[in-house]
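One example given next:
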Amino acid sequence: MECPMPKTPLIDALNGIVSARPPIWLMRQAGRYLPEYRELRGQAGSFVDLCLTPALAAEVTLQPIRRYGFDAAILFSDILMVPFGLGQHLRFEEGRGPILAPIQTAADIPRFDPEGFHAQLGPIYETVERVRAELDPSVALIGFAGSPWTVASYMVEGGTSRDFARLKTWAFADPDGFDRLIARIAEATIAYLDRQIRAGAQVVKLFDSWAGAAPETVFERAVIAPTKSIVTALKRDHPSVPIIGFARGAGAMTRSYVETTGIDAVALDSATPLAMACALQADRPVQGNLDPMALVAGGDALRAETDRIVDALSAGPFVFNLGHGIVPQTPPEHVAELVARLRG
């Protein structure tokens, strides 16, 4: 059963309500820039173990809420939990990031077994339950997943890529096989987010971190179409749960992404001009888009960039966030400065 939608600053903004001050949460607000995270990370073993240990993952999720009082907590996990749930081998190496056994052809596309998938990812649903039980009702809980194009990039490339050569070659050379891979990821993502919502997530976000790597014709097939299918399926069963879409680097394709997919709000990267953000805001709430390096810089630069964004977007429904995630070298006191600036 879908959790009742409380009145919270984030959910109000995502429902189109304009407030005196924008709600704030930050991508990667739980992570390596926090000393309390680094201390706990050492107890977990591997990064995958951390994501799949509910007591630890819940604690990491709650750490930035205790420290900064953000308007939302976002589940601590990783977008590669979906391929892990589908049975693809996954590990993380320090300095290299994720490493997966790459999928090479359509014959390698994993089968979706709902029972096995949910058994693998059951600890994540338990984390959601734990966090929701701990959070003040005024703080929203965000669940998330990677969007199919971005998840496929890791599944096919075997990790992070500079040029996405294998991914794009497959998309062009074998469109039917590639579309089957995208559809399989979308199918699993719907099931995954549905369970997060049933466990207590009140908002969900789709991260298409590598959307900007998709050529125009591939963008329509592999970014817009599967996002629309995910949104449609989730809205059928959870009509009141807001869905945020983030197609990083989409540029001129952003408007088509917003208008076609059915997302409730659009998260914008730091390269999106504020004039474009304002135009999009005429249709639906926007989220963003402070450059993470301005947060690293702090001081006058942080204040000026924050004020510029707030001045441009506060007349409409707006959620303050970064244009991408907090980087590890961010001084924690700069995050506190940002929160104070927005609430001062």
The chain has a mean pLDDT of 96. Residues 189 and 327 are 26 Å apart (CA to CA). Residues 9-343 form a domain with the TIM Barrel fold (CATH 3.20.20.210). The two ends are 38 Å apart (CA to CA).
